[in-house]
Amino acid sequence: MALYWIYPSIFILYAVRPCLGLRNYPDNEVTLLDSVSALGDLGWEAYPAEGWEEISVMDERNTPMRTYQVCNVMEANQNNWLRTGLIPRHGAQRVYVEIKFTLRDCNSLPGVPGTCKETFNVYYHESNSETPPPLRHLRESQYLKIDTIAADESFTQTDVGDRVMKLNTEVRDIGGLTKRGIYLAFQDLGACIALVSVRVFYKRCPLAVLNLARFADTVTGGDSALVEVRGACLEDAEELEPPRMFCSADGGWLVPIGRCVCRPGFEEVDGHCQPCRSGFYKASAMDAYCVKCPPHSYSHQDKASECVCERGFYRAETDPRSMACTRPPSAPGTPISTANETAVTLEWSPPRDSGGRGDVTYSVHCAGARRKTELLPRTTYSFSVEALNGVSHLSPSPRTLATVNVTTSQTVSVVLKERRSKDSITLAWHGPDSSEGNVLEYEVTYYEKNQRDQNYTVLKTKANVMTVDGLKPGTTYVFRVRARTEGGHGNYGGEIELETSHEDMLAVGDPNQSTILAASVAGGIVLLVLLVACFVVSGRHCGYIKAKQDPEEEKMQFQHGRVNLPGSRTYIHPHTYEDPNQAVRDFAQEIDVSNIRIERVIGAGEFGEVCSGRLRLPSKREIHVAIKSLKAGYTEQQRRDFLSEASIMGQFDHPNIIRLEGVVTRCKPVMIITEYMENGSLDTFLKKHDGQFTVLQLLGMLRGIAAGMQYLSEMNYVHRDLAARNILVNSNLVSKVSDFGLSRVLEDDPDAAYTTRGGKIPIRWTAPEAIAYRKFTSASDVWSYGIVMWEVISYGERPYWEMSNQDVIKAIDEGYRLPAPMDCPVVMHQLMLDCWEKNRSERPKFGQIVSTLDRLIRSPSCLKPLANSAVWEDPPSPEAGVSTVEDWLESIKMSQYKDHFTTAGYVTLDSVLYVSASELGKLGVALAGHQKKILTSIQSLQAQQQGTHVQV
Ligand code: AMP
C-alpha cells in the first residue's frame, strides 16, 4: 500500500516546490494559515490512525515540508478524517481556503476494487474554542460541508515516471463568519490523495493613497457588499470634497469620490503636497500649481500663499492676488479752463503714469467754493485736480496735484424792453460781456399762458432785439431768453409774462418799468460738481426748421410736440430737424473707430450686418457691444434712415430700453454701437428654451418690457412695432425694447404687410384702429404688448398660428381674441384681453400694466389658477387637416420627434390619439414643456375625431 503513495510524494515535492516557493501572495490577501510555511509540527488530528498520515519531506533546499497523505484504496468503507487546529479569523467575515493536492487516477492503480474514489470532502466548523472534542467523537452534523473536491488533473504511474507534475489547486470561500475561528476537516472515503498545501486567507483592500487622501487598510465585507471608507487628507492638503472610496469583496478599491487639494502655499508633486519655492506662490487651495509672483511683488520664503508688494507698490483689497502690485498715478496734465460768470469748465489730460491700473479717477478741489455751490462772478478760484486710483489711499507719499487759477466773469442781467401792439411784442435785451465769447444766437421761447402743454414757439435771432408778431390781442404770453455761444446753450432765465394790447396802440416800455429778466444769459453751461471725476457738457437741444421771418430769426414751431423744457422729457422726432446729421450729433456720441474691436457677425439688419465686439472708451472699462453697420453703396437717404435709429435711441435712458453707446459717422462703414444682449431676440430665445422657465421668470421679462414701454409712452414715443422679435434679452434675462429705426416702420419687418391704405403694418401685432386708419398711439402699443405677452407665455408661438392676415383682421373684428396659451395663469390672460379691448381708451396704460405685474410678482399665489387650455375654435387649430404623424408634428413645431414616434411604432395618426405623458417620456420626449404641447395637441386631435371643438 505504501508503494502507492511514497512514489508520488517524492516526485510531487521535486516538481511542486518551485511553485509552492512563491510565498509572496498578493498584497490584498492576508494569510491565516499556510501549511507549507509552518515551521513545526502542523499538529493536525487524524482519525482513524490508519487513515491520514503526516509525511514530512525535505524540499530541494532541505526545508522540511509537511504533507498529509492517504491511499487506502484497496479496502472498502473508508471514512478517514483529518482536522486542522483552530484557525483564528482575525476579524475577517469571509475567508478563502486554497488546497493544493494530487490525486491518483483509480484506473492507474492495478487491481484496485471499485470502491476506489477520486474525490474527497472538505468541511468547516466555527468555534471560539481551541480545544475541540476529539475526532473520534466527531459527528458530521457538527461540520458544515464546504465542497466535494475532485481533481482537474489526476496522475498515473507513467506520469510519475515521466516526472510530469499534476498538481491541483482548488479555492473555496466561507462567508458570514462570526466566531473566533474555524476548524477545517478533510474527509477521505477511499481515494489516494496527497494534500500538499492548505492555505487559509482573507482579503482586504490595502492602504491606498489617491487624490491626496490616505485610505486605511480595510478588511472586505462579509457578503458582496462594498465597504465605504473615508479617506484622510495627506499632510498640507485639505478637503475639497470629503474623499471616499469603496472596498470591494475581492479586495479592490472602487469609485473614488471627492478629493483633497494642496492648501495655499503648496502644490501637488507626485501625489504629495510640496511647498511653493521662493519667488512663487499659490493663493488658493483650488489653484493647481504655484505660480511666479506677479510684477512688483516677491516671496522670500517657501510656502507663500501670496507675494508681498515691493516698496512703493500696493495691492488694493479687491485686487486679485495674481494682479501686479500697482502704485498711485502721477499728477494729471495742467488743467485748461473756460469760465463764465458762475461756472468753470476744466479739462486736463490723463496722468502720464496710471500706476499700472485702469481705475484712475479724478478729484477736483476748489479753494473758496463749497460743494455744489454756484461760483461768484469776477472771483478768482484756485482749482487743483488730483488723479487717484485704487491704491492711492494706501500710499503714505504726498499726492501730486495739478493746479490752476481761474477767474469767473461778470454776470450780465438782461434788461428787457418791451413794445406792445395788439398782435406783436418787441423785446430787447443786453447780451453778456464780449469776454464771455461770441454769442452765436439768442433763443426766445414763448407760449400762451395756460397753454403751455400745447404749443411752444422757439425763435432764434443773432440780434438782441426781436419782434414777435402774429400774436392774439389781449392775450398774455410767457417769454424766456437764452444765448448760445461756442460752448453751447446757456440757461434760460426766469420767465416774463407780457400781454398784447386790446386796441391797436403802441405801448413803449418805460425804462423804469422795464422788466428785469432775472436771468443770466451766458455761454456754455457746465455745472461744477466738486470731487467728481470729470465735467460733462450735457443738454439735449431742440431741433428746428428754418422758417422765413426776419432773416436774422429762425422759428421753430411744434404743432404737436413740446420743446425740451427743464423737467419735461419728450422725445424729439429726428424729422423735426432740417439737418438729420444735427440730430445725430445732438443725441449720439461720436466714437473713434479705434476704440472698437469687431469680433463676430451675430445677425443681419436691414442696412447691413450686426456684429458683436468690444468697446473701450478712454479711461472706461471695456464693454461688450453690438455693432450695426451700414453696408457700402448706400444712398444719402439710407444713411439718414440708418442713423435715425441712433438719434431716437440716444434720447432714451432706461434699463429696459436698449442703450446706445454711440455712432461712428466720421469714417466708413458708418456704425451704430449699442449694448450687447447676449441672448439675442426674445422670440428666438424663447423657442430655444421652450418650457424651461417658471411663470415668475416669464413675468419678470414681461415686467421689464412693460416698464420700458411705460418710459417710452411717457416720452410720447410710439413704437409701432412692438413684438417679441424686437425685444432683446441679455445674460441676466433682462429684456429690453429695441428697433427704433424710422424706415423700419416697417420696411425691414418680415411680419409687416401692406395695408389697403399703403404702408406696411405687422398685422398680427397691431391694434385694429392702427390697421384701419393708421391711428398709432401708446394705446395701440398696449395692444401689441398684449400680443407680446401671449408670445412670451407660449414660448414664441406665432400669434394666430398659420392664419392669413386677412383672416386675423376679420376674426378680431368679429370679436375673437387669442386663447390663453398652455399653463397661462387666468390673470395673465385677462390682462392680455384687457390690452385687446376694441375701444383703445379702455385698454390699460403701461403704468397700470407695470403695477399689475408687480402685484402678481409679489403675490404669486394669484398666478395659480390656470386658464383652461383651450383650442382656437375658428379658425382651425394647427392640427386640423393633418393626416400623418409627420404632418401633425410639423404643424405643432415638434418635428424633431418624428423619428422618436416612428421608432416607437406610432406610424398612423390614429395610433397617437392615446399616447400618455409617461409614454412620451419613454419614447424620448424629455422636456415637460414639449410633453404638454404634444398632449394638448393630442386632446385637440381627439376633439376633432369626435367632431367637437372646445369653445374659447
Ligand atoms: P436688427 O437690425 O435690430 O433687427 O438686428 C438684427 C439681429 O441682430 C437681431 O434680431 C438680433 O439677433 C441681433 N442684434 C441686434 N442688436 C443686438 C444687440 N444689441 N445685442 C445682441 N444681438 C443683437
Automatic annotation (TrEMBL):
Compartments (UniProt record): Cell membrane
Residues at which ATP binds: 602-610, 628
SMART domains named in the record: EPH_lbd, Ephrin_rec_like, FN3, SAM, TyrKc
Protein keywords: ATP-binding, Cell membrane, Disulfide bond, Glycoprotein, Kinase, Membrane, Nucleotide-binding, Phosphoprotein, Receptor, Repeat, Signal, Transferase, Transmembrane, Transmembrane helix, Tyrosine-protein kinase
Domain named SAM: residues: 880-944
Cysteines paired by S-S bonds: 71-192, 106-116
Membrane topology: Single-pass type I membrane protein
InterPro entries per UniProt: Eph_TM (IPR027936), Ephrin_rcpt_lig-bd_dom (IPR001090), Ephrin_rcpt_TKs (IPR050449), FN3_dom (IPR003961), FN3_sf (IPR036116), Galactose-bd-like_sf (IPR008979), Growth_fac_rcpt_cys_sf (IPR009030), Ig-like_fold (IPR013783)
GO cellular component: dendrite; plasma membrane
GO MF terms held by the record: ATP binding; transmembrane-ephrin receptor activity
Catalytic residues as annotated in Swiss-Prot or TrEMBL: 721
Biological processes, Gene Ontology terms: axon guidance
EC number: 2.7.10.1
Signal peptide feature range: 1-21
Main location: membrane
Catalysed reactions, as listed in the record: L-tyrosyl-[protein] + ATP = O-phospho-L-tyrosyl-[protein] + ADP + H(+)
Protein name per its UniProtKB record: receptor protein-tyrosine kinase
